[in-house]
Amino acid sequence: MPIAIVGAPGTGVMELLNALPTALLAAGLPRTCGLSAAPALDPHPPFELVLLCGLPRTRADPQAQHIDTRLRQALDACGRPYAVVYGDSAAQRIHSAVQAIAHHQQAGFNPPTSQTPWQWQCEKCSDAACEHRLFSSLLKTGSVRP
Length: 146
Hints:
- The chain is α/β, with parallel strands linked by helices.
- The protein has a single domain (2-107), classed as Rossmann fold.
- It has four helices and four strands.
- A four-stranded parallel β-sheet has the order 2-1-3-4.
- The longest helix is centred in the last third of the chain and has 18 residues, at 90-107.
- The protein is globular, with a radius of gyration of 19 Å.
């Protein structure tokens, strides 16, 4: 499974690229993962999964934030399956990446459907806008008696 690793400068892309093969082996995951730090924004790249290294919580660099935002927008626009890898330390990022790869291998990739994604609606919400959406959607479906 070809995997691309991308991220803004300072997010540990190369560190993750170098450490991940050993971590995948230790986790008992198939060694068929091809890892690359190559750009993953081509509309038809050979990658099944993209790992996006998220910004550290302490990072306040506006340029890195801009690059991170642009990467996310580009990945969303081309419909590429990706997982964001977070962690304050290299070990946490590696652990997060291994979990994302394991999940992707077990679940497989299901292409997005045209269905509206599920949205949380709780019965004890005091948000007026939330209540309005809830009752409006019930009226549209005819599930409320006149």
